[in-house]
Amino acid sequence: MNVSSTSDIEITLWRTWALTVTHEACEYTEQKFNAEKTGGDPVIPSPNLDTDLVMACDRLVDRLIKAYKNPIQMPIDIARYSKLISPKDRGHNEEREEKLLQRCPPGHEDALTDATQKEIWAASDLLAPMLEESIKVDGNWRTNQRWFKPSLEDDVLTPGCINVSPAWFQQGHENQLDPQVSASLKGALSEKILKAIARPAAIATAALRVMHPEQYWAGLRAFGSLGEKAQSKELPKMSETLQYWASVFNSLSVISNRQTPNHRDHLSIPECFDILTSVGNYSNARMNVGGAGWEDGWPVVGKD
């Protein structure tokens, strides 16, 4: 399947790829968003999209339109802020963070359908053994047991933190070795896991298509290139995994029942977006983005 971005760069995707269906969902989402924004004609979804996915895209468009019509302006120069930070600024030094804020002073509704949230919940069950094994007594803060809420006897969610990716660089060898399928997708359940997260991955990608189209097309081009490399270098596991991968993001972090300390991820590009999705029944959740001087809280997030 050949698709073209706004820059007329042709991208080749395999018709059997889950990402091809995601792209069609993104096309529908963007067209419907633009129609809702301008009062245009109704948009008919592709027959390749199932009913649940179309309903999820419709819910997403509704939330995006509400956000578009009710913008919140934050008086902070993100471009300047990103130039001030260095790889040493990991977000742990409160004094340093306060000085950054002084130089760059800052001034809820569910976007996922119940069906999509239940799919994410079900996928977490498939990942339970790996989540359990991920917690370490002496690990770094991402996997150290002190940051996780222990499971109760009647708790259906397993605490843990894992990364899922079709093309994962071994730490410390980013420029030396070809990327590999993450360990979390090398087991017997890999296909089942990828199919379980396909619709949620498509919705997150559709949101990116509307919010940051340049990043969306860059991700799509990257996966087209990755598919060609997997074939030319005879990497069968990667080729197999790419067939079921449904996101333009190259990795997914699954974080369950963990408190996250203030930190900064230097592997992310300041001009690009990450997508954060919160699912479950819990109360008094708070998110603090210290670098932007922003904090939000809500009494209940998500449903099961």
Give keywords.
about 300 residues, mainly alpha, two-stranded antiparallel sheet, 10 helices, disordered C terminus
What does this structure look like?
With 304 residues, the chain is mainly alpha-helical. It contains ten helices and six strands; from the N terminus they run ββααααααβααααβββ. The protein has a two-stranded antiparallel ribbon. Strands 3-4 form a two-stranded antiparallel ribbon. Strands 5-6 form a two-stranded antiparallel sheet. α1 crosses α2, α8 crosses α9 and α9 packs antiparallel against α10. The C terminus is likely disordered.
The number of helical segments is 10
Q: What's the gyration radius in Å?
A: 20 Å
First CA to last CA: what distance?
A: 36 Å
Mean pLDDT: 80
> What topology, given as strand order, has the largest sheet?
1-2
> How does the major sheet shape up?
2 strands, antiparallel
| Overall strand count | 6
Low-confidence stretches: 298-304
Strand content: 5-15%
Overall SS class: mainly alpha
Tell me the overall shape. Answer: globular
- Helices and strands, in order, run as EEHHHHHHEHHHHEEE
Helix content: 40-55%
